[in-house]
Each structure stands twice: as structure tokens, then as C-alpha cells.
Design brief:
The structure holds two protein chains of two kinds. By secondary structure, chain A is of the alpha+beta class. Chain A folds into two domains: 183 residues, no CATH class; 134 residues, no CATH class. Helices cover 56% and strands 18% of the residues of chain A. Chain B is built from seven helices and ten strands. In chain B, strand 1 and strand 2 form a beta hairpin. A six-stranded mixed sheet of chain B has the order 6-7-8-3-9-10, sandwiched between helices. In chain B, strands 2-1-4-5 form a four-stranded antiparallel sheet, with helices on one face. By secondary structure, chain B is of the alpha/beta class. The chains are: A alpha+beta, B alpha/beta.
Chain lengths: 409, 230
């Protein structure tokens, strides 16, 4: 018969005798559990941020860039050869079945003026498809109409950063701003998107109809030229199919022979980001694994102290044995002691880990997420460490010879 | 059938190549309710014999029967169970748990017998009362005198209603006045509760409290005689 409540009481008393020692032993576990929780929190925070960036970029997104020009053997890099046109974009939307929407882009940087304020920002010439392609909601006002794009009207949508810099708290809808000295009517305000995966402020932008950008703002090498075509696939699964369909269509439209290279590139940004997210997750796991080494070291600390304790209390063990303590009475007493050390350390470690994560967020500005799962795992693991590292000292204690133990000085 | 029966018990310790015969074919029977002193110089085998009687050790050869049960065939935990229920130990150095109150020390045997906490407390208080330590239950061993500590140890030996008390030089650390008190207490327990008391001592005046004196020398019993009271 083993009496657990009394054994727990005895264990607490034994641990109280050496308060400093018990506290230091716990510290190993506190650091271990705290580190595991904080590290996983950092990792989870990072991958959550990347996931948010992916969704801020728009889901199932493909980007078509024009190819590189070669001038006298010097290759100029992607996008230097103007090959994509509005009609390419329209054809993709019409003919590629795996594509749900498109947004042609012709962009540039321009100085914009409203009243006494002025601001330099990226002006994006695009169509109404942009908001759909990038899952970008409007904060107020309206988007472009087909008519706006067709007749190159001088209307614009403002990003949040632009609104802040030009209008402050004023409502910009219906106001006239000047882009490159040309007056534009503000018809809508874009919702906030935050940082791009590359760290750019996505809200520091103005959208104008692509035709307006072509004819009035930036000009084109040939009529209908665009810099990028953004494509939204119907689903993540059909994205490779969409990529293939687009490539075939554009090769055909650009009359590229079977031996020639493409004069454009299709990039699957979502995939790139998902890879980044994957690697962050691996990173989080790795951090957690490294942190659990410290938990392991903490466990060895417990074993060490328990071994010392068994030696110090040999006589006590002898008395208990003489009085009738059985093998498992003795074992359980030391295992419970180790377990109490590790579980109290575990709880304190959880508190340390959570507050540590908060401190990291506060001072380093990293986003951290303490998941209940990691807390549960860390706590469970600390309990296992207690049982595992408590067992050997307990086993050793239970094998003592009662006569020798009683005589031990 | 004798209460305690040792039949040709031999205990051999091996120290490297040397065999040490601590006990050499010792046979002995003790009836229930006896008060026996075991005497002899150190190294005579009396402690080894007490350890075997107390089920702390097993004989190398021979048989030890306690209430007719052959202890030789039992494992560690069975022996612990016998020590718990049948035998109360009293040691020269008291062997109380430090930093543990008297009452908790007395509760210890019941803890390993699975007795509920409420009953443990009740039995312990009664046992402490019977050794004259009423109201001292909350004292820790370092707050008690030697005599009082030994009384706590006796209460601990009594609390599980063990029929045997094994006392290994119980007065060795006590002055003569306290020794007399402790011996009177043991004699009272023997007389009134019919508890079998076996004690190891060097001192003749302590042995004089018992009813039978067995002397050991070189692992053998050299004399076994009743104490004649004048």
C-alpha cells in the first residue's frame, strides 16, 4: 500500500530542508521550460507573420514579368524588355481556365500634391482586378470601373500612408490631388495592408487606371505596354496548371518558336512564401530542440541533487526500511520529490517563458506567439524529465541494504 | 510451536577470500511474552543474530521461523511487511527522523501499512500517551531529551501492535536514571501487554530487568539461563 498524499507531504518537507538547493535545482528546469516556450513562441510568431504577409500579398498569386533584353551581349535583367501588353492580360483572363482574375500593372514614382502638402510615392496603373487579385479591400469610396479604364479617366485610389501624409484626418474622397501636376479625383481609399514580405510599406501607394498611367503619367514604348501582369489562380491546387496555361498562351501570342527561350517569366510568389513559411517552421522546431537540450541539462541537475540527497539521507532510508517501507515506498518517495522539483520548475518556467516572450516582443519588436500546445508540451516534458531523472536515484535508494543504511553516519 | 524459532542458523560474511562465521549453527526458541537479554562482547555475533531475528537480514544456512513461518523463503518486500506488522525496533541512537514531529515519527509504521490519516493520528496519540509523552506530539526530536526520544521510538515500535520489540542497546546513550525509566517501561509493556521483548546489552544491571539471559561468544550461544529474582 502506497500512501501518495503523505508521501507528497514528506517530499515537500525534505525539499524545504534545503531551500537554496531545491531552488537552484528548479532553476535548471525553469530555464529549460522557459527557453522552450520562448523559442517556440519566437518561431511561431515569425511563421505567423510570414503567413500574414502571404495573405496580405493575395492568395494564389502569380506574377508575369517581361523577359530580359540583351544589348550587345550584356543581359539587362528581368523586366527590361517590354513585351507584355494589355491585350496579353485580357487574353490570359479570357483563355486560361485556371485563372480567376488579372491585374496588369504599369507603375512609377511621382510627386503628388494636395493643397500645401506634397508626397512622393509609387503610382500603380492597374485595373479594377487589382483589388481582387491581391485580396485588398477598400476602406471607403469606390474602385475603378470598366469605363474608367477604357476612357483613361483621371481618378485614383489612395493607400493609407498617402492619406495620412496628404490629408491627415480629413476625408479625401472627392478631393482633387495632382500627380505630376495633372489633377486626379480621389474616388476611394484602400484598406491597410501593412508591410510586404520584403518589408516595404504596401500602403504607401496610389492606384490609377492603367490606361491613364500609360497615356498621361509614364508613357509607354508601344501602345498598351504593361510592366507586370498579376494573376490570381482559381485555387492553390490549380496554380501549376495556371502557370502552364499562361506560359503556353504567351509563347503562342509572342510567336516564340519551340527552340527559343521565353521572353517573359511566370513567378509563383505564394510558393516562394510558403517555402519561407516552411523554413521558419523548421527554424522554430530547431530553436525548440536546442532549448530542450537545456531542459535535459536541468533534468541531469535534478538527478545529481537527488543522488546527493539519497546519500545524505541513507540513514533515514534505513529507518524507513526497518519500519516497513517496501521497495516502491522508497522509490516513490524519491520519484515524487524529483517530480515536485520538476513540476514546480515547470510551472515557474511557463511563467518565465511567457513573460520572456512578452519582453522579447517589447524590446526586440519580434512578434511572439505562446501557443497552448507548446506550454502543454513543455510542462509534460518537464514532468517526464522529473520521472526519468528521478528514477535512477530512487532505484538506488530502494536497493540499499537496511542494515548498512541504519549504520550509515 | 515456539513463537520465535531459530534452527541451526549460520551466517557467513565473505571479505575477499576470507570467510567470517558470524553465527555458527545457532539454535534457539523464544516463547511469546518472554523478556530476553542477549549479551556478549562485540564480534560475538549477537548483532547479526538480532538482525536475523528482526528480518533485516537472512541466514546463510539454517531456518528461522517466526510464528511458524519460514522467513528464509520471503523476498525483500515480504520481509518489510513482517517488520512493519510484527516487529518494533528500538535503537541505541533512537533513529528518529530529524525535522519531523514526534507524532509523525510514530505515524511512520502505519504510513507503510496503508492506515488512513485520521486513524494514524488517533493511534499515535494513544501510543505517545502510553509511553508518558502526552502533549509532546508536536515536538521535534531535537527539542526532546534522550529519554524522551527513546520513548518516542518505543511509541513508534508499539503503534502497529507489533508482538515483538527488538531493542538494540536501548539505554546505551542514556544516563542511569533515564535508563532505569526506559527499562521499567519495557518491563511494563512485557508484563501488561504480553509483548515479547528481546534486547541486546553490555550491562548486567540492564540485563537484570529481563527474565532470561542468553550469552554469545564467537558466533555460538555459550549460556542460556533464567534470571532468578531474589
Amino acid at each position: 500500500m502506497i500512501n501518495i498524499p503523505s508521501t507528497i507531504k514528506i517530499s515537500f518537507r525534505a525539499l524545504k530542508v534545503n531551500k537554496m538547493r531545491s531552488a537552484l535545482t528548479m532553476l535548471g528546469i525553469i530555464i529549460g521550460v522557459g527557453a522552450v516556450i520562448a523559442m517556440i513562441a519566437i518561431g511561431t510568431g515569425a511563421s505567423k507573420r510570414i503567413a500574414e504577409q502571404i495573405s496580405s500579398m493575395g492568395s494564389n498569386l502569380l506574377m508575369i514579368l517581361p523577359g530580359a533584353t540583351t544589348a550587345g551581349g550584356v543581359r539587362m535583367g528581368a523586366g527590361t524588355q517590354p513585351t507584355l501588353t494589355m491585350s496579353d492580360a485580357e487574353a490570359i483572363l479570357k483563355e486560361c481556365l485556371a485563372v480567376s482574375d488579372i491585374a496588369p500593372v504599369l507603375n512609377g514614382v511621382a510627386q503628388i500634391v494636395y493643397g500645401h502638402q506634397n508626397w512622393s510615392t509609387g503610382v500603380v496603373g492597374t485595373t479594377s482586378g487589382m483589388l481582387n487579385v491581391r485580396d485588398w479591400p477598400l476602406a471607403s469610396g469606390r474602385s475603378f470601373t470598366q469605363q474608367d479604364v477604357k476612357s483613361a479617366t483621371k481618378v485614383c485610389l489612395l493607400g493609407q500612408t498617402v492619406v495620412e501624409n496628404l490629408f491627415g484626418d480629413m476625408d479625401p474622397i472627392g478631393q482633387i490631388i495632382r500627380i505630376k501636376k495633372i489633377p486626379f479625383t480621389v474616388v476611394g481609399v484602400l484598406g491597410s495592408k501593412g508591410q510586404s514580405p520584403q518589408g516595404q510599406d504596401q500602403d504607401d501607394t496610389i492606384h490609377v487606371p492603367v490606361t491613364t498611367a500609360q497615356k498621361k503619367l509614364f508613357g509607354t514604348t508601344f501602345p498598351g505596354m504593361v510592366r507586370i501582369i498579376m494573376v490570381k489562380g482559381k485555387s492553390a491546387e490549380t496554380l501549376p496548371a495556371a502557370e502552364k496555361q499562361i506560359t503556353e498562351l504567351l509563347r503562342q501570342r509572342h510567336r516564340i518558336g519551340s527552340k527559343q527561350d521565353n521572353d517573359f517569366t511566370v513567378r509563383n510568389l505564394t510558393q516562394v512564401m510558403q517555402t519561407a513559411e516552411q523554413s521558419t517552421k523548421v527554424m522554430a522546431l530547431l530553436l525548440g530542440a536546442i532549448a530542450s537540450v537545456s531542459l535535459l541539462v536541468g533534468g541531469i541537475g535534478i538527478m545529481n541533487i537527488m543522488l546527493v540527497s539519497v546519500t545524505e539521507r541513507t540513514r533515514e532510508i534505513g529507518i524507513r526500511m526497518a519500519i516497513g517501507a517496501k521497495t516502491w515506498d522508497i522509490r516513490l518517495q524519491f520519484i515524487i520529490e524529483a517530480l515536485i522539483l520538476s513540476l514546480i520548475g515547470g510551472v515557474a518556467g511557463i511563467i518565465a517563458g511567457i513573460s520572456g516572450s512578452k519582453i522579447i516582443t517589447l524590446f526586440a519588436g519580434w512578434s511572439t506567439i505562446v501557443s497552448p500546445f507548446s506550454v502543454f508540451i513543455a510542462f509534460g516534458f518537464s514532468g517526464l524529465v522529473g520521472i526519468f531523472f528521478g528514477f535512477y536515484p530512487a532505484y538506488k535508494a530502494s536497493l540499499l541494504d537496511p542494515i548498512d543504511a541504519l549504520r550509515y553516519e | 510451536m515456539p513463537f520465535i524459532e531459530a534452527h541451526e542458523i549460520t551466517k557467513i560474511y565473505r571479505l575477499g577470500d576470507i570467510e567470517l562465521h558470524a553465527l555458527n549453527r545457532v539454535s534457539l526458541a523464544i516463547e511469546k511474552g518472554e523478556f530476553v537479554s542477549i549479551m556478549g562482547p562485540s564480534g560475538s555475533g549477537k548483532s547479526t543474530f538480532m538482525n536475523i531475528i528482526g528480518c533485516l537480514d537472512k541466514p546463510s544456512d539454517g531456518r528461522y521461523l517466526l510464528e511458524g513461518i519460514d522467513v528464509g523463503g520471503l523476498d525483500r518486500d515480504d520481509l518489510a511487511g513482517i517488520r512493519n506488522k510484527k516487529i518494533g525496533f528500538i535503537f541505541q541512537g533512537f533513529n528518529l527522523l530529524p525535522r519531523t514531529s514526534a507524532i509523525e515519527n510514530v505515524e511512520l509504521p502505519m504510513l507503510y501499512d496503508g492506515i488512513p490519516a485520521k486513524d494514524r493520528k488517533e493511534h499515535s496519540l494513544r501510543a505517545l500517551k502510553s509511553v508518558g509523552l502526552e502533549g509532546r506530539g508536536d515536538h521535534h526530536p531535537n527539542q526532546l531529551s534522550g529519554g524522551q526520544q527513546q520513548r518516542v521510538a518505543i511509541a513508534r515500535a508499539l503503534v502497529n501492535n507489533a508482538p515483538i520489540i527488538l531493542a538494540d542497546e536501548p539505554t546505551g546513550n542514556l544516563d542511569s536514571k533515564t535508563s532505569a525509566e526506559i527499562m521499567e517501561l519495557l518491563r511494563k509493556l512485557n508484563n501488561e501487554s504480553n509483548i515479547t521483548v528481546i534486547l541486546v546489552t553490555h550491562e548486567n544491571d540492564i540485563a537484570a530487568y529481563s527474565k532470561r539471559i542468553i550469552r554469545f561468544l564467537d558466533g555460538c550461544i555459550v549460556s542460556d539461563e533464567k534470571v532468578v529474582r531474589s
